[in-house]
Amino acid sequence: MTQAIRAHRHGGPEVLTWETVEVGAPGPGEVRLRHTAIGVNFIDTYFRSGLYKTDLPFTPGNEGAGVIEAIGDGVTDLKPGDRVVYVGSPGSYAEARIMPADKLVPIPDGISDTVAAAAFLKGLTAQYLLRRTFRVGPDHTVLYHAAAGGVGLLFGQWARHLGATVIGTAGSDEKVELARQNGYDHLINYRTEDFVARVHEISGKVDVVYDSVGKDTFDGSLDVLKPLGLFVSFGQSSGPVPPFDIGVLNTKGSLFMTRPSVFGYNRDRATLLESAGELFDLIGRGIITVSIPQTFALKDARAAHEALEGRATTGSTLLIP
Length: 321
What we know:
This protein is of the alpha/beta class. It contains 9 helices and 15 strands. The chain has helices at 42-49, 113-133, 150-162, 173-180, 195-203, 218-223, 247-251, 269-284, 301-309, and strands spanning 2-7, 16-21, 30-40, 63-71, 83-87, 96-100, 105-106, 141-144, 165-170, 186-189, 206-211, 225-233, 256-258, 294-297, 317-320. Helix 2 (113-133) crosses helix 3 (150-162) and helix 2 (113-133) packs across helix 8 (269-284). The chain is globular and about 60 Å long. The chain starts with a strand and ends with a strand. This is Quinone oxidoreductase.
């Protein structure tokens, strides 16, 4: 039998329970995967709370790495013993699970399972933000909210590699210093400083704002964008962006706005492998390093969610089966 985290109702971290589940044999096109490391991401809390809809009961989690134990009929490019990582298949908070083989990406030699699990969703997010939603280069100045978070630390390093001027916000002096060590040119402590005034002091205005905070930063973010600038909303840790008059985008400079996701940008296997290849190449060359300050036992997923929502984490957080 296999142990897993389950939620039988939506709510706070207290709805997460440690239970025994049945994991059968893989069917055609499937594999049985034994997890070695499981990524914890803010999107997991959205499913747990009911902000993002899912059937009940369910096992949370969208990211994991592990070793293939068995393969089903028709699986030809993977074999038992292969190390793989995935994102976007709900149900990762488990010791083992059945997975579609086409969702799995081989982990390159030289990259550990823990680094792969910690970096995959967050790194693919940084990849589409910097390389496709807005193709960042040396001529651009960008603002990133929550710079000391898991995506933020990877984003800062990647943006520096691309030559951009990178401004970040964070919620404590310690987080500001951590972000500074990970590629940011300018940091703003949003608890003690007005980030709009500080951005104006630093650069005037910016080409693009990347925002995973939501409600608390939305209005100010529009105020720091250049005419024709882009506001990228890819999360809502402080709550959803409230309803607004779309005319404000006109009055503030004919602004653009988008709400992308890592899943929307990696809809097919060829694109997923290309995105993963770019991420793993930068990690392998040491251009991006992955911070894993927090690990929890899988059975302690509730504590991991409490820490994440309490903004008590930096970098990536893992569950270890």
